[in-house]
Specification:
single chain, mainly alpha, 80 residues, 3 helices
Amino acid sequence: MSWIEALRGSTWLYPLLQVAHIAGFAVLVGSVAMFDLRVLGWSRRIPVDALARHLLPWSIGAFAVVVPSGLLLFSVEAGE
């Protein structure tokens, strides 16, 4: 059984994949927004490079969740 068939046939697998995809987007957008706010001048006590070192792993991890989950979600509905 392929991943696509498993996603189509499962009651919980597709919704869990959607949750992972949306949560990944939330973390990605949140980390980018926090960095942008710092660059715009909020919380000047925190150095930009220190915040970037802290947020970059979160952004990379979120991106690593969003891309594969998005491709799987697309592949299930690609024919439609």
